[in-house]
Write a structure and sequence with these properties.
single chain, alpha/beta, eight-stranded parallel barrel, two-stranded antiparallel ribbon, 11 strands, binds flavin mononucleotide
Length: about 350
């Protein structure tokens, strides 16, 4: 299991999608044409992305919605089974499962990922969520520890256990703080460790990401801040003897003219489900440190159209320019979201991808 996973050796700026498994995707909208996160749409999208050479799909693991008029993210496909079905239906694309450590036993997760690695020829990745959303934990009957030390302490032991199951070819006993087992082993095991994502914002979470993840996933609210943040994270990684890259997420509104793109963004904003937006912002700010708390007003609008993602709004040239600016800030890649992913991706594919190739980013 020693060799490096092929996903980690791509030279190009990585592009993926985010949250296509969730009702509404990343747009907290009341528009009737908002994204319907059913299997047919995900399969259609997965095939389009795979054929276009997009690198990955990343889901959000959610167990209850954000309320409001639309109950944003009320309907969500479970991510391990979603990844399994997509991997079986595609050829090249990497598909991540997003897993809440507390809600999923490490012996089970180790085997699920190993199984998907075999199914897909090593195209599966794992996004680890340590926990943050208190009402969601209540819906699972779990207690979310108030302090980040306990949340990430648990996640650390959980992932250490998984890594050992992926590494050891003999049965072993696990005697930890949170797990005590006898005769555990993982068979099959992945041929190489799958790519790991973590979206921590707190200092404790960042330390976890630096020590365990290949990619920290973080919002790009202000690119000058991002440059500093990325340099610090890379340096922290180097200190820990690891290469850590940073991914972000972007919301795309791409049209032939800037006026059309701006009008479409305004249309999405005008029909935002503000009740759900405010619940989303309130929960993020109450329980997690992902978004900078001093940028609340800006973040509220960005939450409505893109769940806090970086706005890529404009002509294909402007969208390509925006992606180039993320690349220049030091991001290793970005996810993309659209109001209707499958409807809008082909225009992005045909107009923006060639411009990124011309710029040498892809
Ligand atoms: C880009 C991004 C992706 C995330 N994906 C998920 C997810 O799939 N499921 C989930 O429950 N939380 C998700 N979160 C929420 C983070 O896990 C949560 O904000 C994180 O725990 C905050 O970091 P902290 O615990 O260090 O404060 C995501 C957050 C961001 C910024």
């Amino acid at each position: 299991m020693a060799q490096q996973h092929s996903f980690l050796t791509h030279q190009r700026f990585l592009l993926g999608t985010f949250a296509s498994n969730c009702a509404g995707g990343m747009t907290v909208s009341k528009l009737p044409e908002r994204w319907v996160a059913n299997w047919q749409n995900n399969l259609r999208l997965g095939k389009l992305l795979d054929e276009a050479g997009i690198d990955f799909m990343l889901p959000i693991a959610r167990w209850i919605g954000y309320g409001g008029e639309t109950d944003f993210h009320g309907s969500v496909l479970e991510t391990m089974t979603w990844a399994a079905a997509l991997l079986a239906s595609t050829q090249r694309i990497t598909v991540f499962a997003t897993i809440h450590a507390t809600a999923n036993h490490p012996v089970v997760v180790a085997k699920q990922i190993a199984t998907l690695s075999q199914v897909s020829g090593e195209r599966v990745g794992l996004n680890i969520v340590a926990g943050w959303n208190k009402p969601e934990y209540e819906a699972l009957g779990l207690t979310l520890p108030d302090d980040h030390e306990t949340r990430y302490g648990y996640a650390q032991e959980w992932f250490d256990f998984i890594r050992k199951l992926w590494r050891e070819d003999k049965a072993f006993d696990w005697n930890g703080r949170y797990f005590t087992t006898k005769g555990s082993y993982g068979d099959p095991r992945p041929a190489s460790p799958p790519p790991i994502i973590n979206a921590a914002g707190s200092p404790q979470g960042r330390e976890f990401a630096v020590n365990n993840a290949n990619f920290l996933f973080t919002p790009a609210i202000d690119l000058e801040r991002s440059k500093v943040e990325i340099a610090e994270l890379r340096a922290q990684g180097k200190n820990a003897g690891r290469d850590v890259d940073v991914l972000t997420f972007s919301h795309v509104v791409c049209r032939p003219t800037e006026a059309e793109a701006r009008a479409e963004l305004k249309r999405q904003l005008d029909s935002a489900d503000w009740g759900a937006v405010d619940n989303l912002v309130r929960l993020q700010f109450a329980h997690a440190h992902s978004f900078p708390h001093d940028l609340l007003a800006l973040i509220r609008e960005r939450m409505a159209t893109g769940h806090g993602g970086f706005p890529l709004v404009g002509t294909p040239e402007q969208v390509a320019e925006g992606i180039a600016s993320l690349h220049a800030a030091g991001f290793r890649g970005t996810t993309l979201s659209f109001l209707d992913y499958a409807q809008e991706f082909p225009y992005f594919r045909d107009t923006v991808l060639p411009l990124l190739a011309q710029r040498g980013i892809r």
